[in-house]
Amino acid sequence: MAEGPVASRTRHLGHTAAIMAAVLVVGAGVGALVGGTVGGLGVAAGVALVAVSYLASTLAMAWADSVAPRLVFGVGLGMYILKFSLFGVMLVAVTEAGWSGRTPMAWGIVVGVVAWTASHVWWMARNAYPYVKPTRT
How high is the pLDDT of residue 135? Predict the structure, then answer.
């Protein structure tokens, strides 16, 4: 089966998505045991936030690399600025609302970052390079 230019750069996403789904379910369960429904929702929100954020960055940079590798830095930096600006707005809104799930959400974010990063490192260490076949010039 032929892979498109973006798909060939995102083969790790299936593995990482499965790991993140497991982390979300287990994390939400632990959060619910420790902090009730709000704790479970907070952890789940944190893990989901990380997963969506990292997925968006991965897809944007894979697209940029498929169009012109010179775009990767600019697109990556743009995604970073956009994501953290949105995170800032969201965190201010959550804080002003006084939601009691803020602390569990923070723990969910930490666990999500560690899980995504570890999953990606594990996958990269066990799979062949390069992702993109070199073109002859």
Answer: 65
Predicted confidence (pLDDT) at residue 87 exceeds the cutoff of 90: no
Helix and strand tally (H, E) in the chain?
3, 0
pTM: 0.85
CB neighbours of residue 52 within 10 Å: 13
d(CA 88, CA 3): 37
CA distance linking residue 8 with residue 1, whole number of Å: 11
Q: Distance between CA atoms of 76 and 60, rounded to whole angstroms?
A: 7
Among left, alpha and beta (phi > 0; psi -120 to 50; other), residue 4 is beta
78 neighbors 57 (Cβ within 8 angstroms): no
Question: Which range, 77-81, 124-128, 133-137, is most confident?
Answer: 77-81
